[in-house]
Amino acid sequence: MKIKKIVEFFIEKIIRNNKQLLNLNIPQTSREILFNFNFLYPKVKRYIYNERESYYLFFLIHKELLPYFESLFNFEYVSEKLIELDLSKTFGFDLKIRIIDDFGGYIIEIETTSKQMVEGILNKRTYPPSPEISFPKLNPEEYYGSLQGNIDFWFNQLWEPYWKSLSKEDKTSLPLTESWRELIMFKFGE
Predict the structure, then answer these.
(1) 10-residue stretch averages of pLDDT, the chain, 190 residues long
(2) Are 28 and 16 in contact (CB under 8 A)?
(3) Of the candidates 129, 160, 176, which is a domain's last residue?
(4) What is each CA distance from 64 to 15, 59, 78, 124, in whole angstroms?
């Protein structure tokens, strides 16, 4: 029972942090986390919202993958910093999308009640831009201490879920510079 309370505390803290970071307007009392799709990319959280099973995805994609999402959701991204869409009426199920142009790619946030939509996105095998693209001017050799700001957010919220979803062979074959590979291995191990 004590462990359950601790886990619930940390889940609520994560939700609160993500809500503040992304300015989500979801009532906290209606949300109950059920299952976390560990080791998948994009990261998926399943929860109950207004007595309906829902899914939350939050991930970074390489810019070359944007046409897939434009086609999937039937919209055109017009070089804005942020786009928010509520496509619930169009698709016949709850579907809200937020796309942010950042870190050399696009941060995508999706809330939906469609398990098929989530499975389709998971089957696409999306991937983020490499660290060199996300941080072209950053010297990774200077970041072995604690991370803060954008680099901390990128590492923990965007890169880590991707890294953990990869097999050992996939991690080895990623085209990373030696200094980025060493920093990533230092932070997350194999």
Answers:
(1) 46 45 40 52 85 91 94 79 84 91 95 91 93 93 81 93 93 94 88
(2) yes
(3) 129
(4) 29, 15, 15, 13
Domain residues for the domain of 40 are 1-129
d(CA 10, CA 186): 24
102 and 50 assigned to the same domain: yes
Following DSSP, what letter does each residue of the chain receive, concatenated?
-HHHHHHHHHHHHHHHHHHHHHT----GGG-EEEEEETT-SSEEEEEEETTEEEEEEEEEEEGGGHHHHHHHHT----S-SEEEEE-HHHHTS-EEEEEEEETTEEEEEEEES-HHHHHHHHHT---PPPHHHHSTT--GGG-SS---HHHHHIIIIIIHHHHHHS-HHHHHHS---HHHHHHHHHHH--
Residues 150 and 114 in one domain: no
DSSP assignment string, 31-50: -EEEEEETT-SSEEEEEEET
